[in-house]
């Protein structure tokens, strides 16, 4: 018996989009299985089934691949945007395989973004219970009191949102700027920016330099490079 999986998972594993986005495509009646309309994301398929999305045939990826990209500021990590802003996928070569991003960086943040051709692998790296550490270098205008860092490192609640214990230390500082190294495992939406806003710290630069075992290294801004998958 052939191994079967849910259609939404199949689409994600093919690197077409995330499972959630696949479910939306099914709701919009854009997905067919063997030329028959797919009615629900729980329908089971195998690699021998013909899956089409808006007449395009979707094939499973036999090999999981991974790339690192240096996201510049003023780019978004989505494939579509109503405001017509620049997207990280615009930076990729025209013949680049179809990929999805692992996590996101906000519009004004820069640095390491991981891309993969496999939805399940993307989900594995994103899940909070996996504990993959994200490391950032953050430049703040002016000086910072150490007691504020101690408060953050113990865990802090801001606007009823609990930010668990994180690691934040001063990397270097002068009269004008303070550079911080911030290590997160939760990675809640805009976590660093919300914490800095709470303490009235003005962010000059926010750069992600590591995600789990994967490092930005000397990759140039806007460039992409295929990397080997590691066991974290």
Quick rundown:
With 232 residues, the protein is of the alpha+beta class.
Keywords:
Alpha-Beta Plaits; 5 helices; 32% strand; 232 residues; elongated; nine-stranded mixed beta sheet; four-stranded antiparallel beta sheet; Structural Genomics Hypothetical 15.5 Kd Protein In mrcA-pckA Intergenic Region, Chain A; alpha+beta
Can you walk me through this structure?
This protein folds into three domains: 5-58, Structural Genomics Hypothetical 15.5 Kd Protein In mrcA-pckA Intergenic Region, Chain A (Roll); 66-128 and 214-227, 2-Layer Sandwich (Alpha-Beta Plaits); 133-211, Alpha-L RNA-binding motif (Alpha-Beta Plaits), CATH 3.30.70. The mean pLDDT is 91. A hairpin with a 2-residue loop joins strand 15 (203-211) and strand 16. The two termini are 33 Å apart. The protein has five helices and 17 strands. The chain is elongated and about 65 Å long. The chain is 17% helix and 32% strand. Helix 1 (7-13) crosses helix 2 (19-27). Strands 7, 8, 9, 10, 13, 14, 15, 16 and 17 form a nine-stranded mixed β-sheet that branches. The protein has a four-stranded antiparallel β-sheet with strand order 3-2-5-6, with no helix packed on it. It is an alpha+beta fold.
> Which fold name corresponds to the CATH topology of the largest domain?
Alpha-Beta Plaits
> Could you tell me the mean pLDDT?
91
Number of strands: 17
What is the N-to-C succession of helices and strands?
Answer: EHHEEEEEEEEHEHEEEEHEEE
Low-confidence stretches: none
Number of helices: 5
CATH architecture call of the largest domain: 2-Layer Sandwich
* Strand residue percentage: 25-35%
CATH homology-level superfamily of the largest domain = Alpha-L RNA-binding motif
Percentage of helical residues?
10-25%
Q: Which word captures the global form?
A: elongated
Strand count, sense and barrel status of the largest sheet are: 9 strands, mixed
Overall CATH class of the largest domain: Alpha Beta
**What is the straight-line distance between the termini?**
33 Å
Radius of gyration: 20 Å
Q: Supply the helix-strand structural class.
A: alpha+beta
Query: What's the number of domains?
Result: 3
